[in-house]
Design brief:
The complex is a heterotrimer of chains A (318), B (203) and C (338). By secondary structure, chain A is of the alpha/beta class. Chain A folds into 3 domains: 99 residues, Beta Barrel (Elongation Factor Tu (Ef-tu), domain 3), CATH 2.40.30.10; 109 residues, Nucleotide-binding domain of ferredoxin-NADP reductase (FNR) module (Rossmann fold), CATH 3.40.50; 84 residues, Beta-grasp domain (Ubiquitin-like (UB roll)). Chain A contains 7 helices and 19 strands. In chain A, the strands form 4 sheets. In chain A, strands 1, 2, 3, 4, 5, 6 and 7 form a 7-stranded antiparallel beta sheet that branches. In chain A, strands 10-9-8-11-12 form a 5-stranded parallel beta sheet, with helices on both faces. The two termini of chain A are 14 Å apart. Chain B has 4 helices and 10 strands, in the order E-H-E-H-E-H-E-H-E-E-E-E-E-E. In chain B, the strands form 2 sheets. In chain B, strands 3-2-1-4-5 form a 5-stranded parallel beta sheet, with helices on both faces. A 5-stranded mixed beta sheet of chain B has the order 7-6-10-9-8, with no helix packed on it. Chain B folds into 2 domains: 111 residues, Nucleotide-binding domain of ferredoxin-NADP reductase (FNR) module (Rossmann fold, 3-Layer(aba) Sandwich), CATH 3.40.50; 66 residues, no CATH class. Chain B is of the alpha/beta class. In chain B, strand 4, helix 4 and strand 5 form a beta-alpha-beta unit. Chain C is α+β, with helices and mostly antiparallel strands. Chain C has one domain. Chain C is built from 13 helices and 10 strands. The chains are: A alpha/beta (318), B alpha/beta (203), C alpha+beta (338). Chains in contact: A-B, A-C, B-C. Chains B and C meet through strand 9 and strand 10 of B and helix 5, helix 6 and helix 8 of C.
Chain lengths: 318, 203, 338
């Protein structure tokens, strides 16, 4: 398995598009085009200033036909671990950072007869790229987008004016809420539903889809989960004989990276499987969505981006 | 799902139909003896909520009598009996076109019928997790000849003469869901005329 | 940037079989056995270059047989246009393939190919085949045929485009004119496990499960490759089931006198690329043929070939169609392993 390579890049524009969301454009420092990507892809932004460093995955927005730049719309998370705060406060036009090779955990299901997109808040971002693909393929689509109001709803006005038939907005401030039962109940065979947004909204949609008899193969979701903090612990790397301390608010993956131990990764949220690591010793606090129950029970594998030690020590096969 | 993996990973293996409790609408589709499989399913499936069930089938008067007695108005919304398979398969796309997500198909009959229905379901955008199938009756095979691109129906032996080009073909277990057929190839390609004794394996 | 000279008179891969490898082609032939015994494995590595002049140097290898192979493809498609097939949801994948091949070939063989782009207005030049094509990228009506068919008629090897969905890969588009005994018409639309179903032994070893898991995670810009092999009688490229009834008898024509000329080692360089817009995968199958006679000019290869053939598992012998002439071949090879 391979570590994604990343491109040294420069910020070429920053726009505050809602009170909480900034839109960033990046170009490669070597001047070459980034190249096309598939709708739903994410890329990891690597930022560093002094002692602070962050690696956060964000969806790529923007027409996937424009190759010179990558664009992202990033929400300021006040309860986050600092990455989005850094983006909002420290990253300006001209700032240099690293943009990772894109990977797609939320692709469009190509043979679907109809694509039903359900977005909430900043969850709109992957769908901006989706809509471009829908247009290219002349696909049948609908977008149901829940926003606080127009001021806080990124891209809402443009979407509504460009796609009046396909886009339905639900404005919380007007007490208009998306009724998932109603939306899902009337869809023809061959519809695939894609949901991206706040954790509870995604949970609700998945539950209702299941209750309404939608097969799981027709339901797709994306949530960017950041690792939760936990107890500090130490790690021994069996092969290199390193000892590493993992602090409370950093993930094991981050601790390894701070110690210059590079392992493969992609989503950094326990979903994609890239950072799967073998464990030689120690009890694991599994918090991921990738390993099978058997793998978790065996105690031989873990996902360092999100999982931690149950106790105070782990020995890894690194 | 009724498919289990066997020796040849592409070969379908059938088991009794299993009811999906999440289903909101059921469409039972059967031909000939396949009605038995649908009746068994009906009698074992417990709904946790009211579910609309419709039946489409072809069959003799005997099958008609069974259908009407088991698929009574309290268990089944609508029964449609068709003259023959072609008529049933011609009507199905329209029904699926006006159906909604939450539909499950339960299909029972001979192998080529099962996969013809599955093909229509797939063309309507359904995924294999949305339909269930069980083979009841003869295991006779449809065999695809790559040499002339014809298919032969009702093959019960391992070796047969291709309906299209007349070559002696041996059929293996490699199966195409799209065609509902097993792959055949010329059995005496290496030494012309050296055709082994055929065995009846798929009765 | 590579220069390659093509054989000017066309070689044939059928009928009189005039195909032959130059000394240079023999030297760069991809000998596929790392050990004296062969068994299936998930033997994948990154496809990121190789020795200059080798078949691994460039993303897609063009060699001295280019013109002959393209003519062979043309002949096969003329007799049987269904050797190119595609399902309707694969347009993005097709454009991805066209872009990948045009960019790779023009970058790596600028003597023969060039590509100029002005937004979506592209001009492609293939000088060896005397082609100059202006078209609009993304607009099928501006090409003479499907995009994948268009470009694969100009590149050596077979190509399968796979749609990635349901944690699986589906062979939904294919150009197959040099199949090692599998049928594109039959296998089109199959999932990874389904189309690999006929391969013996490997399933029990979990080879395909691991391979699929690995392939689902291949990243953009980080393609992978592996080698596969079989034996073919005569330098026949098209050993598909479609024409098996015509070539099958050649397996029974082997004598100790003709092993050297007739039996060919057939090696596939399989390359797997993540496709940018569709998120699908390209499975490239680049086929190399060499006669036993030419192969055994290399003493180390000859010795190893003998040992591999001698110890091949009977199920593999059977699956690769070697059984009938196995003893004769082994006997002939033993002279190199005294």
């Amino acid at each position: 398995m391979n570590t994604p390579f990343s491109y040294p890049a420069r910020v070429t524009s920053v726009n505050q598009i809602t009170p909480l969301i900034k839109h960033f454009s990046f170009e490669r420092i070597d001047g070459k085009p980034f190249g096309p990507f598939s709708a739903g892809s994410h890329a990891v932004v690597g930022m560093r200033e002094g002692d602070e460093s962050y690696k956060n995955p964000y969806s790529l927005v923007g027409a996937s036909n424009n190759f010179m730049r990558y664009e992202m719309a990033i929400r300021l998370e006040s309860n986050g671990r600092g990455g989005s705060l850094f983006m909002h406060n420290n990253v300006k036009v001209g700032t240099e950072l690293e943009i990772g090779n894109p990977f797609n955990l939320f692709p469009v299901y190509k043979p679907a007869k109809k694509h039903l997109m359900i977005a909430g808040g900043v969850g709109i971002t992957p769908f901006m790229a989706y809509i471009h693909e829908m247009n290219l393929m002349n696909s049948n689509f609908e977008l149901h987008y829940s926003i606080r109001d127009f001021e806080y709803g990124a891209f809402a006005k443009e979407l509504q004016s460009q796609y009046p038939k396909q886009v339905k907005l639900y404005i919380q401030a007007d007490d208009v809420l998306a009724n998932f039962n109603k939306i899902l109940n009337s869809q023809p065979l061959g519809t695939h539903v894609y949901v991206c947004g706040p954790h509870r909204m995604v949970g609700d949609l998945l539950r209702i889809a299941d209750e309404l008899g939608w097969p799981s193969t027709s339901v797709h979701s994306e949530e960017f989960k950041a690792p939760d903090p936990g107890n500090p612990f130490t790690v021994t790397l069996a092969k290199s004989h390193h000892e590493i301390n993992v602090r409370a608010r950093e993930s094991l993956l981050e601790a390894l990276e701070h110690a210059n131990v590079e392992i493969p990764y992609s989503c950094r949220g326990g979903a994609c499987g890239f950072c799967k690591t073998e464990v030689i010793n120690g009890d694991i606090d599994h918090r991921d969505y990738y390993l099978t129950d058997a793998e978790k029970a065996s105690g031989k594998f873990m996902m360092p981006c999100i999982s931690r030690a149950q106790g105070d020590h782990l020995t890894l096969d690194l | 799902m009724t498919e289990i993996v066997s020796e040849m990973k592409s070969k379908p293996v059938y088991s009794p139909l299993q009811y999906d409790p999440k289903s909101r609408w059921n469409l039972f589709i059967g031909e000939g003896e396949g009605l038995i499989g649908l009746i068994n399913l009906l009698s074992t499936s417990e709904s946790i909520r009211p579910v609309t069930t419709n039946l489409m089938y072809t069959g003799s008067d005997v099958e008609k009598a069974y259908a009407q007695s088991y698929f009574s108005p309290s268990r089944c919304n609508k029964i449609s009996r068709f003259e023959n398979q072609d008529a049933l398969l011609a009507e199905l796309p329209e029904i699926l076109a006006s159906s909604r997500m939450g539909l499950r198909l339960y299909i029972c009959g001979l192998e080529t019928f099962l996969w013809k229905v599955a093909g229509i379901a797939r063309a309507a955008g359904m995924h294999k997790s949305e339909y269930n199938m069980q083979l009841i009756g003869s295991k006779a095979r449809r065999v695809y000849c790559p040499h002339c691109e014809a298919t032969s129906e009702g093959v019960t032996t391992d070796i047969h003469e291709c309906d299209g080009c007349g070559l002696s073909l041996i059929n293996c277990d490699h199966f195409s869901r799209e065609m509902g057929a097993y792959l055949g190839f010329r059995v005496d390609a290496e030494v012309h005329g050296e055709v082994p004794q055929r065995q009846e394996l798929y009765r | 940037m590579t220069t390659v000279a093509f054989k000017q008179s066309l070689e044939t891969y059928r009928g009189d079989f005039t195909y032959a490898n130059s000394e240079k082609a023999i030297k760069r032939f991809p000998f596929p056995y790392p050990e004296d015994q062969y068994m299936y494995s998930v033997n994948m590595e990154y496809h990121d270059g190789g020795e200059p002049g080798s078949i691994l140097e460039n993303a897609f290898d063009i060699d001295e047989h280019y013109l002959s192979e393209m003519e062979e493809r043309r002949i096969v498609l003329e007799k049987d246009p269904n050797r190119f097939a595609t399902l309707s949801h694969m347009d993005l994948h097709q454009w991805d393939l066209l872009e990948l091949l045009m960019e790779s070939l023009s970058r790596d063989y600028p003597e023969h190919f060039s590509l100029t782009k002005e937004n979506d207005n592209w001009v492609w030049e293939n000088r060896p085949l005397d082609i100059k094509q202006s078209f609009i990228f993304g607009d099928k009506s501006t090409l003479p045929c499907e995009p994948a068919e268009y470009i694969t008629r100009q590149a050596q090897g077979d190509f399968v485009l796979m749609d990635q969905r349901d944690d699986d890969l589906y062979a939904d588009t294919a150009m197959i004119t040099c199949a090692a005994d599998w049928s594109v018409q039959f296998d089109l639309g199959m999932s990874f496990m389904e189309w690999h179903a006929p391969v013996p032994l490997a399933h029990g070893m979990g080879v395909f499960e691991r391979a699929l898991k690995y392939l689902l995670m291949v990243r953009l810009g980080q393609p992978v490759r592996r080698l596969n092999w079989t034996l073919t009688i005569n330098s026949r490229m098209d050993t598909s089931p479609e024409v098996y009834h015509e070539w099958g008898h050649e397996r029974a024509s082997i004598t100790p006198e003709n092993v050297g000329q007739k039996i060919h080692l057939r090696v596939e360089l399989q390359t797997l690329f993540r496709l940018p817009r569709s998120n699908g995968m390209l499975f490239g199958i680049r086929t190399y043929l060499i006669s036993m006679e030419d192969l055994c000019k290399n003493p180390a290869w000859a010795k190893r070939m003998h040992r591999v053939v001698k110890t091949l598992h009977p199920e593999i012998l059977d699956y690769k169609g070697i059984t009938r002439y196995h003893k004769t071949l082994q006997g002939w090879l033993s002279q190199f392993d005294q």
